[in-house]
Design a protein that fits this description.
By secondary structure, the chain is an alpha/beta fold. The protein contains 9 helices and 8 strands. The strands form 2 sheets. The protein has a 6-stranded mixed β-sheet, sandwiched between helices. The two termini are 36 Å apart.
C-alpha cells in the first residue's frame, strides 16, 4: 500500500511522495478527510436538522471559507495534480505570447503524482462546504445521498427543549443512550455509523482501478462523521465516545487494505480546524458578520450535545 511521506518544498509546503504501486484490486486512496459543514440557522438555536435541507448562514459560510483556505493551503498539490492529469485546465496565453504554458512542469512535479477526490452529502450545507475547498483547488464535487446526516425522524426541526416537553421519557432515554428516540423514527447511531462506513468503503473500492495515490475529502455532518469514525475503528457508535465535532472542523483517517479483504483504519488526526478557530469566536464569527437580530450561539453542555 502506498502511504503519504510528506517533505517540504522551497516554499515550506507539504509535498507528498508516493511509495509502492498497488496490488491488483487495492484502492490507492490512502487518506480520508471527513469535514463537517459550517453553521446554519438551526445550529444557532440547537434545532435538530437531520436530513432537512438547511443552508449555511453567513457565519457558516465564513467558517467553511476559512477552513477551505486552510485545507487548500495544506493540499495545494491537489491543484497541481489535477492540472497534470487534465492539461486543458492550464490557461494558455494569446497567440502573440513569447511562449506557451508548459504542462510538463506540472506533470513532472512530485505534487503532480497524487490526486484528490471530493465527495459530499447532497444536502446544501454540506455541498457548499465541499465547494469551499474544491473550488480553490479547481476540483469537481460529487454528491452522494448516503452521506446525509443521521435521520431524526419525527424530531427533525425541533429543539431539545421542544423534544423534552413533548415526551420527557423519550428525551431522557435518548440522552442516556437507551434508544427512546426510536419510537419517533430516529435512525440509531449504529445505523448511521454503518451507513457512513459503508459509503466510505464503497468509495475506496470504487477507486481500485486507479493506480494514482489519492486523498479522499468527504464533506458531511456531525453525527454521521462521529458515528462513521467510531464504526470504522471498531468502537460502539451508540456510546458516542468521540463527542461533538465543531462546525467546519475535520478529521483524518488512514486506511490499510487487509489481505483477506476490507480495511484496517487509523485515526491520524481528530477535530482539526484553522488557527483562527482558537483566536476568535468561532461559533458566532467576527463582529462584522453579525446583525442585531442574530441570536448568539451558545455551546451545549456535555449532557445536551450530540
Amino acid at each position: 500500500m502506498s502511504h503519504i511521506v510528506a517533505r517540504r518544498d522551497n516554499g515550506g509546503h507539504d509535498v507528498p511522495e508516493t511509495g509502492a504501486r498497488p496490488t491488483q484490486g487495492e484502492s490507492m486512496i490512502d487518506e480520508v478527510i471527513l469535514l463537517r459543514h459550517g453553521r446554519t440557522s438551526y445550529n444557532v438555536v440547537h434545532r435538530l436538522q437531520g436530513q432537512v435541507d438547511v443552508p449555511l448562514d453567513i457565519v457558516g459560510q465564513w467558517q467553511v471559507d476559512r477552513s477551505g483556505m486552510e485545507l487548500a493551503k495544506r493540499y495545494y498539490w491537489a491543484k497541481v495534480g489535477n492540472i497534470a492529469r487534465h492539461p486543458d485546465l492550464l490557461d494558455q496565453p494569446g497567440a502573440q505570447a513569447a511562449k506557451r504554458s508548459d504542462i510538463s512542469e506540472y506533470q513532472r512535479a512530485a505534487a503532480g503524482k497524487r490526486a484528490m477526490k471530493v465527495v459530499s452529502s447532497d444536502l446544501c450545507r454540506a455541498s457548499r462546504t465541499a465547494h469551499a475547498v474544491a473550488d480553490i483547488l479547481g476540483l469537481p464535487v460529487t454528491l452522494d445521498a448516503s452521506l446525509r446526516e443521521r435521520s431524526f425522524g419525527g424530531w427533525e426541526g425541533l429543539t431539545r427543549d421542544e423534544i423534552r416537553d413533548k415526551d420527557p421519557e423519550a428525551y431522557r432515554s435518548w440522552r442516556a443512550h437507551r434508544g427512546g428516540e426510536a419510537k419517533y423514527g430516529v435512525e440509531s447511531r449504529t445505523e448511521v455509523g454503518r451507513r457512513g462506513a459503508d459509503a466510505i468503503t464503497r468509495l475506496l473500492d470504487g477507486n481500485a482501478d486507479d493506480p494514482t495515490p489519492t486523498t479522499l475529502l468527504v464533506a458531511s455532518h456531525g453525527s454521521l462523521i462521529a458515528a462513521t469514525i467510531e464504526t470504522l475503528l471498531g468502537m460502539d457508535a451508540e456510546v458516542d465516545a468521540l463527542g461533538n465535532i465543531p462546525n467546519a472542523f475535520w478529521s483524518t483517517l488512514q486506511p490499510v487494505a487487509r489481505p483477506e479483504g476490507g480495511y484496517k483504519w487509523r485515526l491520524a488526526r481528530f477535530n482539526e480546524g484553522p488557527a483562527i478557530a482558537t483566536q476568535a469566536d468561532w461559533m458566532n464569527g467576527p463582529e462584522g458578520l453579525r446583525n442585531p437580530d442574530m441570536p448568539t450561539m451558545m455551546a451545549l453542555r456535555p449532557s445536551q450535545s450530540i
